[in-house]
């Protein structure tokens, strides 16, 4: 059984509400240190935050629609890394994915990858609930080909829904351990978090981190 500390170390402690204030982000960072999470994930305009020792700083790019021009996403990613982000979670161009324009999907990801080269970590949000299984597989393959470090299920803002065990399992099978798999969107209970890990998730995006971790206390 995974321990509370091990689960916390897989969590991007997340606050991406547009109305979030600097004070709320500061409290998020303080709580991340208390809980022992891997990182905090905040909006690009909220990167000016004091972090506890050992906590990474993640942000988003092309969020939440993914419909921005590739040049805009690349510029956003570059600014975020310059402002201290260790990790960037970008949203793919869903319209291109649904249309089967996979070269365009790859070009989009490559542009962001070039703008935030290693050691910055690039996670690619494929919005799995809005895609078919075949599209999920193709999106993961393009993310890998474009040099991403992770594939990620969801923004948590799409009306189609967030992470599902089935999508995580399919994504994990597709990337075969060569990339990380982040499950995010609608994971609110300990049971749901553990199910995502069992399906192959190596990172979790949680906003209600404390409640999820408390389920492992007993």
TrEMBL record:
GO molecular function list: deoxyribose-phosphate aldolase activity
Catalysis: reaction(s): 2-deoxy-D-ribose 5-phosphate = D-glyceraldehyde 3-phosphate + acetaldehyde
Location(s), subcellular: Cytoplasm
Family: Belongs to the DeoC/FbaB aldolase family. DeoC type 1 subfamily.
Catalytic machinery residues: 89, 152, 182
Major enzyme class: lyase
EC numbers, comma separated: 4.1.2.4
Pfam families listed in its UniProt record: DeoC
A GO CC term assigned to this protein in UniProt: cytoplasm
HAMAP family found in the cross-reference section: DeoC_type1
Any one GO biological process: 2-deoxyribose 1-phosphate catabolic process
Superkingdom assignment: Bacteria
Listed pathway(s): Carbohydrate degradation; 2-deoxy-D-ribose 1-phosphate degradation; D-glyceraldehyde 3-phosphate and acetaldehyde from 2-deoxy-alpha-D-ribose 1-phosphate: step 2/2
The organism's taxonomic lineage, starting at the top: Bacteria, Bacillati, Actinomycetota, Actinomycetes, Micrococcales
Protein name: Deoxyribose-phosphate aldolase
Spans traversing the lipid bilayer: none
Keywords: Cytoplasm, Lyase, Schiff base
Coiled-coil intervals, chain numbering: none
């Amino acid at each position: 059984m995974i321990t509370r500390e091990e689960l916390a170390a897989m969590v991007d402690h997340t606050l991406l509400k547009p109305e979030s204030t600097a004070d709320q982000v500061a409290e998020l960072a303080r709580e991340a240190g208390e809980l022992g999470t891997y990182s905090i994930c905040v909006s690009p305009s909220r990167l000016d935050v004091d972090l506890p020792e050992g906590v990474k700083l993640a942000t988003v790019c092309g969020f939440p629609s993914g419909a921005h021009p590739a040049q805009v996403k690349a510029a956003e990613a570059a600014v975020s890394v310059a402002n201290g982000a260790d990790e960037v979670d970008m949203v793919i161009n869903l319209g291109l994915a649904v249309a089967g324009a996979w070269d365009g999907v790859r070009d989009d990801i490559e542009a962001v990858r070039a703008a935030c080269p290693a050691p910055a970590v690039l996670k690619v949000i494929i919005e799995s609930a809005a895609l078919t299984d075949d599209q999920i597989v193709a999106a993961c393959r393009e993310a890998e080909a474009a040099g991403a470090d992770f594939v990620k299920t969801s923004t948590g803002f799409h009306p189609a829904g967030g992470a599902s065990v089935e999508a995580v399992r399919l994504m994990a099978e597709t990337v075969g351990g060569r990339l990380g798999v982040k499950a995010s969107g609608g994971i609110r209970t300990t049971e749901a978090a553990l199910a995502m890990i069992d399906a192959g998730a190596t990172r979790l995006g949680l906003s209600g981190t404390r409640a999820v971790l408390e389920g492992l206390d007993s």
